[in-house]
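Handout, page 2. Input:
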Amino acid sequence: MENFDFDKINGALKPLDVMVADIELRWGRGRLETLATPETAAKFEAARAKLDVAVFNTEADNVVRRAGVLMRGWQALEDEAVRLGHKPAPPDMWYATAPEEYGDEEYQIVIVKDTPAATMAETDVPVYTVTEIARIVRAWRSQSDAAKIKDLFKGAEVVRMNELEEGEVPF
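Output:
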């Protein structure tokens, strides 16, 4: 393995990650894959599995090739979904996902502008308005030291919420 293989792999995955984030924001996480024909879905999942194997085996050149294949696969899924009459989420509807981490399961919500938009949302996941999110954050800020960290360190990201034991240092 060459010294730059990890950089090459990272570079190949970045544009794929951006594309996936954009598609999942429009269509919802995991939704687009369910709107395809079985043939397209099977090809897509095979391409995803081959990329995973290439990453696992640190095969940099293969990752570069497989990332390109998977990007074309995502585009094919979206093109097919549109051709079959499916539509992405309305532009005033945002899918948000808290990833599976630290022993917590993945959690997905939809965020909408206001109550009328919430009543129009056709989804199986919880729907929150931006006002509800602001209320939740306000309540969280009054109960959390993490809010002080956000104030002190602009751009800090909340990645986990849990209670600390007496005297425990969170890093």
